[in-house]
Design a protein that fits this description.
There is one protein chain. The longest helix has 10 residues. With about 80 residues, the protein is of the alpha+beta class. The strands form two sheets. A three-stranded antiparallel beta sheet has the order 1-3-2. A two-stranded antiparallel sheet has the order 4-5. The chain has one domain.
Length: about 80
């Protein structure tokens, strides 16, 4: 399946999290990063979706935190 790519800002909205959180998740290996610098994209299929109100689109609850990759060591 092809990735569904989005900017950090769009991925942050999708997840109900901050852009910094998206960057951190990518650096931790929780989600994939495509490209470099200002041309970096993230696969929203790997990011749990935030729960939003159907009418107002207000955030009800952010999406879950993606799991750490199996190869990662706990701090």
């Amino acid at each position: 399946m092809r990735p569904a790519l989005a900017t950090a800002e769009d991925a942050a909205y999708w997840a109900g999290r901050s852009v910094g959180t998206i960057w951190r998740w990518a650096s931790e290996g929780r989600i994939s990063r495509y490209g470099t610098g200002k041309r970096t994209w993230y696969d929203v299929r790997e990011i749990p979706r935030a729960d939003r109100d159907e009418c107002t689109k207000e955030l009800i609850a952010p999406g879950r935190v993606p799991p750490m990759p199996a190869r990662a060591k706990a701090a």
